[in-house]
Task: inverse folding
């Protein structure tokens, strides 16, 4: 992932993937469009006949349209799980409004004297519909289908969030990785598809009323051909399906590393972190990319596969503090180190589980834990000075900050101010260097790759040893930023590949290498 | 052939058609005449069940029309609309073939009938059959509309203001064509119009309607010379002279025609059952012959006349009328 690389060479390099995503995108768009026409046109016919229901149906379709696309996709997950089904249904619902409305408008707009003539000549209601009304309404219906197609091409990019594939994989991967080429590699083809389909359908639409029969055939053939695109990529594949976040897909300490170092060839879908664990639990996915201390690991009974070739750098958490504060209040060092060595991976996972999954408050979880470890004491309510602590915006950091607050209030005379929920690494770190906060918990891997942007050569050399990584970041932080890394707390919240415990045990898979061997077998 | 007995149509609180009865004999043309909103179109549409009556019975050939499905009934009745109602996505030939196809005629028969009709209506088939309605003039569209109504040879024809959408000139020429069409002569026709002129020209009998009721029904001459009330009289007041000229036939004034001396021998002849109006038209057809004489014949007898002798006979005839 070289930032300097040109867009063209990126697209060439990823051409296979790009083609697959484009096919998926076209397939998603048209399968959902097809279903929407199958349901929407008869519905439009029905309300054109039963006018009193038209307000209700059109209003409902209108409301569907106002639901933000990502929310609509979200609503689908509890009903239909993840993958193509919820995406197709959501896209179908989106296409409803233009299709139903235009069918209705087209049919009610047919010249009444023509219908009168048809009736007067003795055509039955169904003959009038099929031979007169629908052909004459066809240009308007086609205009609706055209609108729906363009909407669907756009909304289909969001399908990547729930593992349905499509060009959204590149777009969201690119956003997560701040990789412009990747964003464009998804966005440009998506825009071109929208323009292309709009153009094709405008041609069909111009085959005026007299060629209504030809137009109808053309659209049907187009729909069926393009819908079948969705089936193509699924013709090949492996025994296992992996779901990775957009960020993981594009990182060298992620999917790229898995391909390079392990030569892992597994069928992948891109999926958002929010639904990934549950999807693995429900056997929709077999392998996922998670964080090793995530509470859902426990909630959904997943196991971490051992990274036997070390592509994932260690992410040991430790408080980082401005040196200036350590000199001003030397007593805080020993207090912060009280947690060192007492929280390992499984303990942290358990604590996260209680917050993320059982919805207990971070404060209660922190207090219970400290009481259990006999570290809890009543606060002294001292007045010596103020110490400001920050945290990133997820459960684990909230728990750690609560523990540090309680320890600090009990063991020193300092007052504590907390600034929790700071958006991300960059915001936390900038707050620290700009004297907005005095400390926050950071991870060694993040320090190494994100903050220090350590050259690949050095990373290569030290990555397999957690102590080397810790020593390197400690040394560099104090040299460059006058910030001290205190002792690691003890758990490693790294990227990890995970599987369902049952499946991993059945297949006797404990390491990523064993996973690869299983996938490549026969 | 067509028989309406005490037929009414009510819409929520208005009476569109109020207790109407009349009969149309086979081969007869009955014109429903009246201003807009008088119920004439509703009456027409009840005959082919495009509108169902609230009360009353309608019979075709002594059979209640409710005994048949509306579709079957309508296939046996030709229907011509004011705004032609041609299918814009069908060619001329396809439009004409609609009812024959519904009746499952075979292809050669449909082809033959279509060509025949196009020929009769002066739309020579090679040029017009594959055109679409919007490529035709208004008069042509109306002729195709008529051809479509006649295609399956229905014994009955319903015409709803068939010339209403045309300009006066086109209207007159098409009306003439219609009159001369032999197929129409054999049909039982009910026609709706608000044009008195048209009613007198085409109707064997006229049924004048107002506010959903029949004001007077009878031959054109009856309405003209023995109007039932002031409404009938005033309805025709504006065009009275022309109507009279149209209603009175040469045969009616035969006895009052004073023979004139033949100045120049002219070959033109006119049958005795023509109207005075038709004779006048012929007389003034071209300027050079307008002063000269024409010959009419009846029972092989002949008389010669010019405009002044014709008008004198006409005036004489009128003064002898009972209500004249």
Result:
């Amino acid at each position: 992932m070289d930032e300097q690389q040109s867009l063209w060479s990126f697209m060439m390099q990823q051409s296979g993937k790009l083609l697959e995503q484009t096919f998926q995108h076209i397939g998603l768009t048209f399968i959902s469009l097809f279903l929407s026409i199958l349901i929407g046109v008869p519905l439009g016919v029905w309300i054109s006949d039963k006018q009193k229901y038209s307000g209700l149906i059109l209003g409902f379709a209108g409301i569907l349209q106002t639901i933000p696309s990502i929310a609509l996709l979200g609503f689908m997950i509890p009903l239909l799980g993840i993958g193509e089904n919820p995406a197709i249904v959501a896209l179908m619902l989106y296409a409803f409004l233009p299709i139903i409305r235009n069918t209705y408008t087209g049919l009610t707009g047919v010249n009444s004297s023509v219908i009168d003539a048809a009736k007067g000549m003795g055509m039955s209601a169904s003959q009038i519909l099929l031979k007169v009304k629908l052909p004459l309404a066809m240009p308007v219906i086609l205009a609706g289908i055209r609108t729906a197609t363009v909407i669907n091409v756009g909304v289909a990019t969001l399908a990547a969030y729930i593992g349905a594939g499509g060009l959204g994989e590149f777009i969201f991967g690119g956003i997560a990785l701040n990789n412009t080429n990747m964003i464009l590699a998804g966005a440009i083809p998506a825009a071109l598809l929208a323009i292309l389909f709009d153009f094709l359908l405008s041609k069909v639409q111009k085959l005026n009323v007299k060629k209504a029969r030809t137009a109808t055939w053309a659209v049907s053939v187009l729909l069926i051909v393009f819908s079948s695109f969705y089936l193509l990529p699924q013709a090949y594949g492996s025994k296992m399906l992996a779901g990775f976040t957009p960020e993981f897909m594009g990182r060298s300490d992620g999917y790229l590393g898995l391909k390079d170092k392990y030569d892992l060839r597994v069928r992948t879908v891109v999926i958002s972190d929010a639904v990934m664990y549950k999807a693995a639990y429900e056997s929709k996915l077999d392998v996922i990319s998670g964080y090793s201390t995530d509470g859902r690991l426990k909630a959904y009974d997943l196991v971490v596969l051992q990274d036997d070739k070390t592509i994932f750098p260690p992410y040991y958490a430790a408080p980082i503090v401005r040196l200036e504060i350590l000199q001003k209040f030397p007593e805080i060092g020993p207090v912060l180190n009280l947690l060192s060595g007492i929280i390992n991976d499984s303990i942290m996972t358990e604590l996260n589980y209680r917050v993320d999954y059982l919805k207990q408050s971070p404060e209660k979880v922190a207090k219970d834990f400290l009481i259990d470890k006999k570290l809890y004491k009543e606060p002294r309510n001292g007045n010596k000075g103020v110490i400001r602590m920050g945290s990133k915006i997820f459960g684990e950091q909230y728990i750690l900050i609560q523990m540090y607050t309680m320890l600090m209030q009990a063991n020193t005379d300092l007052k504590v101010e907390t600034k929790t929920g700071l958006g991300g690494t960059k915001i936390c770190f900038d707050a620290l260097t700009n004297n907005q906060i005095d400390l926050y918990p950071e991870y060694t891997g993040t320090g190494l790759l994100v903050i220090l942007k350590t050259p690949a050569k050095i990373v290569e050399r030290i990555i397999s040893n957690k102590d080397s990584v810790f020593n390197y970041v400690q040394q560099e932080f104090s040299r460059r930023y006058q910030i001290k890394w205190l002792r690691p707390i003890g758990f490693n919240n790294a990227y990890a590949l995970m599987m369902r415990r049952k499946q991993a045990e059945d297949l006797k898979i404990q390491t990523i290498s064993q996973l690869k061997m299983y996938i490549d077998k026969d | 052939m067509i028989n309406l007995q005490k037929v009414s149509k009510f819409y929520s609180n208005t009476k569109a058609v109020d207790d109407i009865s009349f009969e149309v004999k086979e081969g007869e043309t009955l014109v429903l005449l009246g201003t807009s909103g008088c119920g004439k179109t509703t009456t027409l549409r009840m005959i082919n069940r495009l509108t169902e009556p609230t009360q009353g019975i309608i019979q075709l050939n002594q059979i209640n029309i409710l005994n048949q499905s509306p579709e079957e009934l309508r296939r046996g009745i030709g229907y011509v609309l004011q705004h032609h109602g041609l299918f814009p996505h069908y060619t001329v030939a396809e439009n004409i073939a609609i009812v024959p196809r519904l009746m499952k005629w075979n292809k050669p028969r449909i082809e033959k009938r279509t060509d025949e009709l196009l020929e009769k209506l002066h739309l020579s088939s090679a040029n017009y059959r594959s055109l679409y309605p919007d490529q035709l003039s208004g008069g042509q569209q109306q002729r195709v509309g008529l051809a479509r109504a006649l295609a399956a040879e229905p014994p009955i024809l319903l015409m709803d203001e068939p010339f209403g959408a045309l300009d006066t000139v086109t209207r007159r020429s098409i009306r003439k064509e219609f009159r001369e069409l032999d197929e129409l002569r054999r049909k039982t026709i009910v026609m709706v119009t608000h044009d008195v002129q048209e009613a007198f020209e085409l109707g064997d009998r006229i049924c004048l309607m107002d506010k959903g009721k029949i004001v007077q029904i009878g031959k054109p001459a009856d309405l003209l010379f023995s109007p039932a009330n002031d409404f009938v009289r005033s309805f025709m007041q504006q065009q009275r002279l022309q109507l009279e000229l149209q209603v009175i036939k040469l045969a009616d004034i035969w006895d009052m025609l004073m023979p004139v001396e033949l100045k120049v021998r002219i070959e033109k002849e006119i049958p005795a059952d023509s109207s005075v109006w038709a004779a006048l038209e012929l007389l003034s057809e071209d300027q050079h012959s307008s002063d000269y004489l024409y010959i009419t014949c009846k029972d092989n007898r002949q008389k010669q006349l010019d405009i002044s002798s014709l008008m004198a006979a006409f005036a004489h005839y009128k003064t002898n009328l009972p209500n004249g």
